[in-house]
Amino acid sequence: ASADIGVTGMGVMGSNLARNLARNGYKVAIHNRSSAKTEEVYTEHGSEGEFIPSENMEDFVGSLSRPRVAIIMVKAGAPTDAVIEELASRMEEGDIIVDCGNSLFTDTRRREAALKERGLHFVGTGVSGGEEGALWGPSIMPGGSPQSYDRLGPMFEKISAHVDGEPCCTYIGADGAGHFVKMVHNGIEYADMQVIGEAYDLLRRSLGLSPAEIADIFAEWNKGELDSYLMEVSVEVLRQVDAKTDKPLVDVIVDAAAQKGTGAWTVQTALDLGVPVTGIGEATFARGLSSSPAQRAAAQGFAGEAQEWNVEDREAFIEDVRKALYASKLVAYSQGFNEIQAAAEAYGWDINLGALARIWRGGCIIRAQFLNEITRAYDADAKLPLLIGDSYFYERIVDALPSWRRVVSQATLHGVPVPVFSSSLSYYDGVRSERLPAALIQGQRDFFGAHTYQRTDAEGAFHTMWAEDGRAEVQW
Ligand code: 6PG
């Protein structure tokens, strides 16, 4: 029993994590349900570090030094439960099982509680960065018990991405906190991808620019405050020419966005917590709309734009779109962080939002320059109620506002869908409104269901006797 850590599940993510650990000097036990896969990884990469391949679970657990640490990297859901049981039944008090898959945080909470009863630590860990990230340095978000982090943290910090010498890994919070923040990371990823998509669509439909020309504009934007991995990826995709047809590749790809569910989880959970994540929600629904062939076919030929689009000042318009993109993205992040705050409150997690933004600066899919500013904002005020209210970000919103309004209204007049640009602007206008029509909704609820309302000038719950003309409200 001499391995520092073990990885079971030798898919691309699992084997790359194992290779990353080995490259960083850890002795890694490896295992897969079908042992041929383990053999394959060992044959191809065995020379990269110290590996102990095992044909079965018994040997795998036996090869781990105590307290044992075993990482599971298999499909979320039932397969993960099955592997947990295989491990747990062979482990001893104090051992640590780490789930690095994209598991739903409520599953993680359930598993953590069950394994705690058996004296085991269960650490639901968010890992972001795709295949390359897993191999060369992902962003790692471990939950579970603080004690488990003492054993696990140093290894994870070492193999994670580093920015300015700081690891992109930190202890997030108890039980499901790690998987929760990874889920919201993915929701933000959806919104970020969608706002870039909206900017692309607008530039194409208004100015008739080619994908390659838009790639050049995005490459320029990527040098400034929009500097991010997703922007960089978008430039690459838009520049790609299809070898078969010589057309821009993006024109050959079917325009139906797929999803594996983490965006939907973020929205479902936000609904449960009562947090408006309009940006993530609209981004998720936009994928749904794109993947609704029957509805799209039925709507082909529907009347469209109210005006012909002749942009007078092209440079100014491009700058407007850039600012609208930045402001909308900011709103989506602000909302995502609110969802994490609400969950921390509901589940008793002590999540350091500044530290979270810090470990998202590198390794993960949403890594971006402006996360530095998010870190600064939450470090300055850990309980900041609204990220867009931080003075640095607020200044940028104010600066972007005229552009944002022009872009959303022009897009609307010309029939170009901008679900995240427009809903983010509505969120901004909603949250800054002194009075909202919610007062009328409360009146309606009280009218038809005696649901009561609160008054601006008195404490308590009130009900109006609507049918009895003019009768004053009564305290409920
Ligand atoms: C990451 C990614 C990863 C996954 C995406 C894809 O952080 O490394 O988010 O987890 O590739 O979530 O998700 P969809 O298939 O739903 O777009």
UniProtKB/TrEMBL annotation:
Q: What reaction does this enzyme carry out catalytically?
A: 6-phospho-D-gluconate + NADP(+) = D-ribulose 5-phosphate + CO2 + NADPH
Pathway, per UniProt? Carbohydrate degradation; pentose phosphate pathway; D-ribulose 5-phosphate from D-glucose 6-phosphate (oxidative stage): step 3/3
Instruction: List, alphabetically, the SUPFAM superfamilies matched.
Output: 6-phosphogluconate dehydrogenase C-terminal domain-like, NAD(P)-binding Rossmann-fold domains
The EC number of this protein is 1.1.1.44
Q: Which residues bind substrate?
A: N102, S128, G129, G130, H185, N186, Y190, K260, R287, R445, H451
* TM segment ranges: none
Q: Where is the 6-phosphogluconate dehydrogenase C-terminal domain?
A: 178-467
Enzyme class comes to oxidoreductase
Cite the Gene3D superfamilies for this sequence: 6-Phosphogluconate Dehydrogenase, domain 3, N-(1-d-carboxylethyl)-l-norvaline Dehydrogenase, domain 2, NAD(P)-binding Rossmann-like Domain
The residues that hold NADP(+) are G9, M10, G11, V12, M13, G14, N32, R33, S34, V74, K75, A76, N102
The alphabetical list of record keywords is: Gluconate utilization, NADP, Oxidoreductase, Pentose shunt
Instruction: Offer an example of a GO molecular function term for this protein.
Output: phosphogluconate dehydrogenase (decarboxylating) activity
Judging by the UniProt lineage, the source's domain of life is Bacteria
Q: Which InterPro entries match?
A: 6-PGluconate_DH-like_C_sf (IPR008927), 6PGD_dom2 (IPR013328), 6PGDH_C (IPR006114), 6PGDH_Gnd/GntZ (IPR006113), 6PGDH_NADP-bd (IPR006115), 6PGdom_BS (IPR006184), NAD(P)-bd_dom_sf (IPR036291), Pgluconate_DH (IPR006183)
Pfam families attached to this UniProt entry: 6PGD (PF00393), NAD_binding_2 (PF03446)
| Active site location | K182 (proton donor), E189 (proton donor)
- Any Gene Ontology biological process: pentose-phosphate shunt
- Describe the function of this protein: Catalyzes the oxidative decarboxylation of 6-phosphogluconate to ribulose 5-phosphate and CO(2), with concomitant reduction of NADP to NADPH.
Q: How does it assemble?
A: Homodimer.
User: What name has this protein been given in UniProt?
Assistant: 6-phosphogluconate dehydrogenase, decarboxylating
